[in-house]
Amino acid sequence: MNSFSKGLRNLVIKVKTKEIDEINVKETLKEFEIFLIRNNVSSVAAREIIKRTKVKVLGKRITRFSNMEKLIEGPIKDSVLEIVSSDYEIDIVEILKSKKKKGEIKPLVILFLGINGTGKTTSIAKIANMVTKEKFRAVIAAADTFRAAAQEQIKEHADKLRIKCIEGPYGGDPSAVAYDAIAHATARGLNIVLIDTAGRMAINNDLIGEMQKIKRVSNPDYTLLVVDALAGNDATNQAKEFDEKVGIDGTIINKLDADERSGTALSVTFSTKGKPIAYVGIGQKYKDIDKFDPKKFVETIFDIG
Fold first, then answer.
1. Does domain 92-293 have CATH number 3.40.50.300?
2. Least reliable range by pLDDT among 70-74, 116-120, 169-173
3. For the chain, N or C: smaller number of CB within 10 Å?
4. Given this model, what pLDDT does residue 85 score?
5. pLDDT, tens digit, 9 for 90 and up, residues 195-237
6. One-character DSSP codes across the chain
7. For residue range 115-154, what is the model confidence (pLDDT) as tens digits?
């Protein structure tokens, strides 16, 4: 049982000892809201979860024979699932299979964003490994020309995976690198282009302007933001700002296996207005990446015994 679940269990134990009435239901939901905020759920996301739960609970007929535990737990789970779910999903392998089935020859272009230290470059390598194992051919665009060692880092991954890496001069135009990689893929009939981009220690106007230009030039099919679950509310703020200023289609959340950071997934999805979590990073090896399953995620955090 993870720490998030343990906290929920303690709340449930308290719930069992309470009488059933509207006042106690509201008090219990207020306690749950505080619990969420203390577990890296942003205050706005926590309030929305409680708002939805309250509508579900108070819409039911409460009698002295009601089971307080069941009365609260079901609606809370449903509300959390609503927040962390999206109207669409991003499954890169399935998208490539669909393109192949339709006979589409234009390469799939994925643009990756994220500040320094989120695991963006490793995530790109994991995606590259995933698609090549499914017999699709990829090229990586080393479009981080800002940091001296960045291109060497992504090229090292590309070499290990036996994938072509398109580079540019240090301090050069990253948009040109992205453009060249797409041209390379198109000319050789490759299936997918994975574009690495520069990060910074924090989001600033230079970074945003650079990402906006790369996006205009590369015209990606999908733009994925990579965040670190351990960053908590910082990850939420990054997601919100990148989505508003550059535009993203989904996220990759790394270190979500650190159970005390489950709240980050809720906050990130809510802050990007329901943009899906495409994948979660669960380790450092190339195979350590999973499709995000909202239902499985909710069942895991509500594993309260």
1. yes
2. 70-74
3. C
4. 94
5. 999 987 778 888 899 999 999 999 999 999 999 998 888 999 9
6. --HHHHHHHHHHHHHHTS--SHHHHHHHHHHHHHHHHHTT--HHHHHHHHHHHHHHHHTSPP-TTS-HHHHHHHHHHHHHHHHH--SS---HHHHHHHHHHHT--SPEEEEEE--TTS-HHHHHHHHHHHHHHTT--EEEEEE--SSTTHHHHHHHHHHHHT-EEE---TTS-HHHHHHHHHHHHHHHT-SEEEEEE---SS--HHHHHHHHHHHHHH--SEEEEEEEGGGTHHHHHHHHHHHHHT--SEEEEETTTSGGGHHHHHHHHHHTTT--EEEEE-SSSTT-EEE--HHHHHHHHT---
7. 999 999 999 999 999 999 999 999 999 999 988 789 999 9
Domain spans of the chain, in order of start: 3-84, 92-293
**CATH H-level superfamily of 3-84:** SRP54, nucleotide-binding domain (1.20.120.140)
Per-residue HEC secondary structure of 199-225 comes to CCCCCCHHHHHHHHHHHHHHCCCEEEE
Which band of pLDDT confidence, cut at 50, 70 and 90, is reported for residue 260? low
